[in-house]
Q: What sequence folds into this?
């Protein structure tokens, strides 16, 4: 068994596609019209055959209260691996991305938490070098 | 000076929370929990940390701030200054009782 898809529930698929591609740097993999919405996925350019991230509409009434409650407490919905959290933080801040947690060493990892502009918090992380 | 401050400071987890807020002010509940777990090996639940924060807030040692959709926790040291003036600067005005 493999993890093939993961999803984030977004308030607007067009806005989400722009943020996840133009700002975070992922690339679009699938865009299939599906009634009111689309089956819309992105992948990392470093791993185009890897796990796809589904930018899923958050229109189900249960989703928004769930997202709001997580965001209030600063809890990210998922985490992406980066080479260097500090460098990525600097790059994304330059692009106007808001962070609810600046880079911090958390034991074996360094993490930061950003706002995806679509109602979610996303963690970025790298594993610290063992000295 | 209310007893709340002394009660709030009596607990080691709450003192760790203040240590972490000293390192960086303005943290979400998530960040505070992550720091306590990963840096101090504390296995407290998020609910337990939330209750500790409520005690610190009631004692005036932590203030919460809503910013957009987020809630941040800031350290407020005024109650500690009252402790200092009570015993270290007893001639200063507004000494706590």
A:
């Amino acid at each position: 068994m493999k993890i093939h898809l993961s999803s984030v529930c977004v308030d607007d698929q067009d806005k989400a596609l722009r943020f996840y591609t133009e700002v975070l740097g992922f690339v679009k993999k699938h865009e299939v019209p599906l009634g009111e919405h689309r089956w819309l996925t992105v992948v990392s350019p470093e791993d185009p055959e890897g796990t796809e991230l589904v930018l899923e509409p958050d229109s189900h009434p249960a989703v928004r209260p769930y997202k709001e409650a997580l965001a209030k407490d600063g809890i990210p919905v998922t985490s992406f691996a980066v080479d260097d959290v500090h460098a990525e933080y600097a790059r994304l801040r330059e692009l106007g991305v808001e962070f609810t947690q600046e880079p911090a060493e958390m034991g074996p990892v360094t993490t930061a938490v950003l706002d995806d502009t679509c109602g979610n918090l996303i963690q970025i992380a790298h594993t610290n070098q063992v000295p | 000076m209310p007893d709340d401050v002394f009660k709030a400071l009596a607990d080691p987890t709450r003192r760790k929370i203040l240590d972490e807020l000293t390192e960086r002010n303005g943290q979400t509940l998530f960040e505070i929990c992550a720091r306590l777990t990963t840096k101090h090996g504390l296995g407290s639940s998020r609910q337990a940390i939330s209750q500790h924060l409520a005690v610190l807030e009631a004692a005036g040692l932590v203030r919460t701030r809503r910013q957009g959709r987020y809630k941040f926790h800031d350290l407020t040291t005024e109650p500690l200054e009252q402790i200092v003036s009570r015993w270290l600067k007893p001639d200063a005005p507004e000494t706590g009782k």
Notes: Chain B has a mean pLDDT of 91.
